[in-house]
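Practice problem: predict the structure.
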Amino acid sequence: MSIQVSKSHASYLQPIFWFFLLAYLIAWSIAFTVGVDTQAILQQYSGATAFLLITLPKFAFSLAGIIVIALTKGYAGLQDVAKNLFHWRVGFKWYALAYLGPAFLYGLGVLLFTLLEPAILSNINLNFKTMGLIFFGADTGIFTYMLLRGGLGEEIGLRGFALKELQKHHSPLKASLIIGVLWAVWHLPSWWHRDLLSILIPFLAVMALSIIFTYIFKGSGESLLIVILLHASLNSFDDVYELIFPKLTEYGLWELPYILGVLMIAGVLIFRLRVKP
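Answer:
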């Protein structure tokens, strides 16, 4: 099926509509039929079937982005995305910010929690094996999250396609908020069992992160590599700190100070993103 794009507002919305619809279909068709629990899927299925059921939802946005770009922009559009993906010649500060920013905020969250619950420090799991898992672990490693999960799986579509398309007609801030809402709602199958407050808090966090991702994507010269690293670090260090401080898992929403930090940063960036392109 070919998607025709014209200069009219309705036609402009078509690629964005198809992109999000396709991403939701890929992820939700699996999430609402076989679930989102990796261990349960591995017990019920095996081999390539289990791999696809686990991996496809994680790559829903990037797959949808590549498909819609190919249909609407052809080979030239795919070349543009590849150029953003391999745009690695950016200032060192962007690498440091993308990788160490989430680590610092999560670390601050741990520090504040230890002031309330000193027992967290009674069991610290920090050794050479732990350090290796931070980089290469299947559940915690930064490379795992870059290549096999949210980093590469989402950013080609969200920032590489949707953000750039929306900025043609909207300010960076408005584009960020549109993506933030649809990005947050996409996570609902993973949040479905939670109470309302435990859904609202990460929903707001995703909205705020959408603003932060836009700022870093634009600031780094539209480097998808940088936002993939940021996304991977965001997911990885959540697990890393729980690996180093196992008692954190006993407390719900120990990341709350981190989330508050993200909301504050997004609030500051709102004033820097209110300029139309």
